[in-house]
Design brief:
about 150 residues; Toll_tir_struct_dom_sf; Rossmann fold; hydrolase; TIR_dom; five-stranded parallel sheet; NAD; alpha/beta
Length: about 150
C-alpha cells in the first residue's frame, strides 16, 4: 500500500504528540506510516521503513530533544533528504521543531551536539557526517516550531 505520509519521530514524542498527530491525520483519511499500531509496537524494521519512505509523497519529521540520539531516526532522516534531492521524486519534507530551537538543528548545537559526539565515537565518520549534513539541512527548512507548554499536549 502506498503511504501518503511517512512520520519520523523521536521516542520522546511517541506516546504523546506524535500519537495525536497520527490520529488527526488518519481521522481525515490520510494514510500514515508508521500508523498507531506500529507506533505502539515500537518495532523498527529498517527495510520496511526505507520502503515506506520511498512509497510516501510527504515526510513529516518530529524533531525533538531525543531525535538525534537515535541512529535509526538519523538513518531515516538521511533517506528522506536523499529522496527530497531526487528531482524525479518531488518528495515534500515538513519539519516540526518540537520543544527544540531550529537554530540548534541547523548548527547541531545544544543537546544535539552531545548526541553527535557520541555517534562519532561509535560510528564511521562518513556516516556521522552524512547524518549531520541531513540534520543541518532539515534545520533550514520551513516548518512548525512548537515551543512547548501545558497547552500543546
Amino acid at each position: 500500500m502506498k503511504h501518503q505520509v511517512f512520520l519520523s519521530l523521536g521516542e520522546d514524542t511517541r506516546l504523546n504528540f506524535s500519537n495525536h498527530l497520527v490520529n488527526a491525520l488518519e481521522n481525515v483519511g490520510i494514510n500514515v506510516f508508521p500508523d498507531n499500531e506500529t507506533l505502539k509496537k515500537g518495532e523498527k524494521l529498517p527495510l520496511t521503513y526505507s520502503r515506506a519512505i520511498s512509497a510516501s509523497n510527504l515526510s513529516i519529521l518530529v524533531l525533538s530533544k531525543a531525535y538525534a540520539s537515535s541512529k535509526s531516526c538519523l538513518g531515516e532522516l538521511s533517506d528522506i533528504m536523499d529522496r527530497k534531492h531526487n528531482p524525479t521524486d518531488k518528495h515534500i519534507v515538513l519539519p516540526i521543531f518540537y520543544h527544540v530551537d531550529p537554530s540548534d538543528v541547523r548548527n547541531s548545537g545544544g543537546h544535539f551536539k552531545t548526541s553527535f559526539e557520541e555517534h562519532e565515537s561509535e560510528q564511521p565518520a562518513d556516516r556521522v557526517q552524512q547524518w549531520k549534513t541531513a540534520f543541518a539541512e532539515v534545520g533550514k527548512l520551513k516548518g512548525w516550531h512548537i515551543e512547548g507548554g501545558k497547552f500543546d499536549r
